[in-house]
Design goal:
Elements (H helix, E strand, L loop, with lengths): L4 E10 L2 E11 L4 E5 L6 H8 L7 E6 L6 E2 L5 H6 L2 E3 L12 H10 L5 H6 L3 H21 L14 H13 L5 E5 L7 H18 L2 E5 L3 H7 L2 E6 L2 E6 L1 H5 L2 H6 L8
Helix pairs in contact: 3-5, 3-6, 5-6
The chain binds adenosine-5'-triphosphate.
């Protein structure tokens, strides 16, 4: 079985700056994989290239959720979402003046037939779908542990809960692969421990594979089955947590930073 995501020889240039340099990466079905590296290494750019925000300068992005490999470079973000790749952002991007439930509903609408406009100009045909979406959104909030906030405005949620709401909204698009960009950023140790459990649950119970960018090495080492390390856009290490922890090139790139979590 081919990997569900395969990136071959990806390069991304911004003018004279090579943000990603000939990068290869794959994720098998059901894996939790981390992408780590110092600030400015190109990690978010890599996510942006996979999810259609940027078209890579060269290379291939191939997905294979159901036994048929397909190239997705250059597809628009909404199409990539419909194909089953969902992401969260480093800086929280919620609809702050909407309720928690409505935020998740927006995720559902991103992949339904009627879409957001259909939900606004409700015809009879959209009402059944709308009911389904409310129920589905509520179920997702229960799985994430946010149901107690269902009618709360997103802006009023504690910080850690806002981060989880982003994950809930991403899950509403029925992804086969979830791309999480620094999900633990700004979380306290207890929130991070809960996030650790939640990510495992999403993989185990929902069968969603995970690609994770994260600076919290304890979380990375505990969650990931495999880790890729990038620096200046280039892959400098790849392996299971134990290999990464003992890789001298990785240790050097992280000099002064905590790696032995
Ligand atoms: N739109 C853009 N135009 C020009 N340069 C960019 C653009 N986006 C990113 N870069 C540059 O590409 C490089 C990689 O940035 P990127 O944000 O991908 O790094 P990162 O590994 O995600 O960093 P961090 O851990 O700090 O989030 C940086 O030098 C950044 O300044």
């Amino acid at each position: 079985m081919k990997p569900i995501l395969e990136v071959k020889n990806m390069t991304m240039d911004f003018g004279g700056l090579r943000a990603i340099d000939s990068l290869d990466l794959y994720i098998n079905k059901g894996e939790i994989v981390a992408l780590i590296g110092p600030n400015g290494a190109g990690k978010t750019t890599f996510f942006n290239c996979i999810t259609g925000i940027y078209t890579p300068t060269s290379g291939d992005v191939l997905i294979n959720p159901q036994g048929k490999q397909e190239r997705i470079n250059g597809l628009k973000t909404n199409i990539v979402t419909r194909k089953g790749l969902a992401r969260t952002f480093q800086n929280i991007r919620l609809f702050t003046s909407m309720t928690v439930l409505e935020n998740v509903m927006v995720g559902c609408h991103a992949v339904t037939h009627t879409g957001v406009m259909g939900a606004i100009f409700r015809g009879k045909s959209t009402l059944a779908e709308e009911k389904f979406i409310v129920e589905k959104s509520y179920e997702i909030l229960k799985k994430i542990g946010l149901e107690k906030y269902v009618d709360e405005l997103a802006v009023n949620l504690p910080y850690g809960a806002q981060r989880l709401l982003e994950i809930a909204r991403a899950m509403a698009t029925d992804p086969f692969l979830l791309l999480l960009d620094e999900p633990a950023a700004g979380m306290n140790p207890q929130e991070t421990a809960e996030l650790d459990e939640l990510i495992l649950k999403i993989r185990d119970n929902e069968g969603i594979s995970i690609l994770l960018i994260e600076h919290d090495m304890k979380l990375v080492m505990s969650l990931s089955e495999r880790i890729y390390v990038v620096d200046y856009g280039k892959k400098i290490g790849e392996g299971v947590p134990e290999e990464i922890r003992n890789n001298p090139v990785v240790i050097k790139a992280y000099l002064g930073e905590e790696i032995d979590a």
